[in-house]
Amino acid sequence: MIQGLKIKFAVPARVKLTQSVCSLLHGVLMENINCDYAAVLHAQSLRPYSQSFYFDRESNALYWQLNALNAQAKDELLAVAFALPEKVLLRQKNMELQIVGKEYLPATDYEALAEKYFAHPLAGKYLHMHFLTSCAFKSEGQYVIFPQPQFILGSLVKRWNAFADSNKLEAQGVAQDLAQEVYVADYRLRMQAFSVDGARIPAFRGDYTLGMKNNLMSNRIIAMLGEYANYCGVGIKTALGMGAVRIELQGKW
What we know:
13 strands, alpha+beta, 7 helices, globular
């Protein structure tokens, strides 16, 4: 089970809120969920959910999106977020956000994603990524602030294998093998740090495109992981609001 919940906030007067507010909303969520489940999450290195907080110019509204990556996260997290009162208190900022809408997004599951990409022709040869919130990776204790293919695909393979109930990608070195089957086709990126508890994490935002080569099996897996990224995010601290991305296939074969 994979499902998203989108919560719409009214834009507060005379206050500019950034993507990092998501880490404060995460605190609100943790205050309201079951204590036993909170303890389970605290013990996990990969969390079965992702979040993002962003401003949409077309609707002139702020959105908080919460994605559950398994059934328990849906029941424990999304249900709690949906039940939040009309006004949400951000204690660290001593301000309230007013909720003006809540919407469950269409659900899917791991088997359905696999079937979509293995039973039908691919709709494109380029994986275009638009990062809604700042993204970064970590390697050998250091932050990596350029989206190299091996880091993107490695992040997605880890999350898929952690939460998928079928069709796991357990072959040794699969992420590295997949990275050899793509190339960087285009990018327009900028540095934009993400703040968590007062600490600034170096990160990037923008657009990035991977082209796929001619290995059909690899291409199917890469495309499937690309759609999964829309739910799980990419890189580090996706549970706190980093790495939210919109990915789509583009271009004809």
